[in-house]
Structure prediction request, 633 residues.
Amino acid sequence: MAIEVAGIFKERKYPFIFAFFLLLIFVTFLLISNSQPPISITTQLTQPDPLSSTPPPVSSASRHSSILSNNESAITNPPVSSSSNDGSPSASTRSVAGTDNGERVEIGAAAADEEDDQVVWELCKGPMAVDYIPCLDNMNAIKKLRSRRHMEHRERHCPDPNPRCLVPLPDGYKVPVPWPKSRDMIWYSNVPHPKLVEYKKDQRWVVKQDDYFIFPGGGTQFKNGVNHYIDSIEKTLPVIGWGKKTRVILDVGCGVASFGGSLLDRNVITMSFAPKDEHEAQIQFALERGIPATLSVIGTQKLTFPDNAYDLIHCARCRVHWDADGGKPLMELNRILRPGGYFIWSATPVYRDDDRDKNVWKSMVALTESMCWSVVAKTYFDSSQIGLVIYQKPVSSTCYQNRKKSEPPLCDQASRRNISWYAPLDSCLVPLPGDSPKWPSSWPERLGDKPRSLSAEVDAEETFKGDTTHWSALVSEVYLGGLGINWSSVRNVMDMNAGYGGFAAALINQPLWVMNVVPIHEPDTLPVIFDRGLIGIYHDWCESLNTYPRTYDLLHASSLFKNLTKRCDLIEVAAEMDRILRPGGYLVVQDTIEIITELKPVLKSLHWLINVHQDQFLVGKKDFWRPDAKIRV
Ligand SMILES: *[C@@H]1O[C@H](CO)[C@@H](O)[C@H](O)[C@H]1NC(C)=O
Ligand SMILES: *[C@@H]1O[C@H](CO)[C@@H](O)[C@H](O)[C@H]1NC(C)=O
Ligand SMILES: *[C@@H]1O[C@H](CO)[C@@H](O)[C@H](O)[C@H]1NC(C)=O
Ligand SMILES: *[C@@H]1O[C@H](CO)[C@@H](O)[C@H](O)[C@H]1NC(C)=O
Prediction:
């Protein structure tokens, strides 16, 4: 080496030496700069906020850069900041600044704050990405299914690992039409799926008019409009008492949810559901209209509702073969129907005479008799040329015991799974409580009265009453006025950890509806929620929810994340919340300052506007930002 160097000097290769030194300097520079934390592109593009009164704090937040392709640090150790940013006086200055118009939040300070903690997001790819529903669009899993006979391909098959991409917006996406106008018209560009217009042309489910879809209230069985149909039902069986006795109902295969939408005027809340199928986007239409709806299917698994929940179940030509598989689908309805509750079946076997319909009817008669359901009405409406039958579920097990044959058998309660979450359908009847169960009080008293399914523990009632008072006060004193939320833009609300449904109950007089989610790892309070006259589902927030992107205006998460992040990664949950939430929508988190500190940088990396109030409420507002919009700058 030395010889060679000497040779180089001897041979006067000065240009080579010069180049060698340049290289050395360059390499040294690279080594030094690599030992610094990575700085992401997004950070550099964020403008400092001139309104912020906070001096750029010296961030002691741990340097966890959670970059998509780098899977370790973010998953196992979400950045728990030891910085006192939020506990310091500057935090309260921010809150005050935020409440006066609700929009002036510290995004600039945020960028300075956690510039090392940015998560770099990517858009979901593919032609279906704008409507991506991870657990229903998992084509790899669906292709591997051995059977589709029982709609297995419409059931949940969640990708593993969870996706971390963000769904793109449809071209021309606009802030949704506000409620109540949205019930009758929505932006075409927000749900640009014209198939249903063609497919159901004669039935006037939905019509395209200029930039809008219009919903005239038609439906296969609603030839004189849905209101007329609803009136006919109550005339047929007055004891139904819409909005008083009958409050919580399920609409199976609901079309564009006009039935549920119309019943809202009568104080009836309807969970409408349908699978994601060739009736393109019907549930997406429903939610865009501001009508409660969810994607689900009666296939091989139980619906994610508790036993004895619904006052009434409705199916108008809903394309479920109730008598298939020894009647398992109908036994599932029996499970979730309240004792004494009604099933309205409006379908051709009830009123047509061709052989096929007659056979279905015969088999339905045998099945319903074996389940002790009684026919309380059967009718044909000349004016609309449709007919329906109304069955009633028994109120006690006496009829089951008096059957000649115990077929279907009674379920063995001890061996049943407690929560209907990925649970196979039963082929048995759930025994009914011995004493004649009382129907809940009339609506609206039902909301506050002691729910029947409240646990028998002595302090349960006290806890329930306390919970009601607590939420009522918190909602009126903090949520409605103190968090800078524009409630008149809020229609579809999800309580991600609903408990007894106290949050929903406190919002009952607002023009919105709440989907109450009881996470599968929390105590099972969903029966209480239904007893109160509210709707809800079970869900595991470590997986994606069965809903289209951009379907909720406000997500509420009270004390949810501590338990949740023990099992899954906060970043994935954030990606899912971003998927569900509409641009302009809110996330409201009530939690400890530790959780809020952990959540903040993740939400900021989504370019949400963040505001923290009283060290325990985090309000995030999603806007129209999508990753590529920035990176391409
Ligand atoms: C992510 O991390 C897990 C566990 O640390 C590892 O098994 C997996 O292969 C990693 N995936 C990628 C894409 O790096
Ligand atoms: C259902 O829950 C009860 C108590 O809550 C428990 O004892 C029982 O083992 C559970 N059954 C199943 C099948 O998980
Ligand atoms: C609140 O939302 C409504 C409905 O979207 C909108 O018309 C109104 O301008 C909003 N108010 C504010 C202060 O942003
Ligand atoms: C967390 O999970 C435990 C055990 O399931 C439960 O008792 C508790 O209520 C849950 N919630 C919180 C906030 O800890």
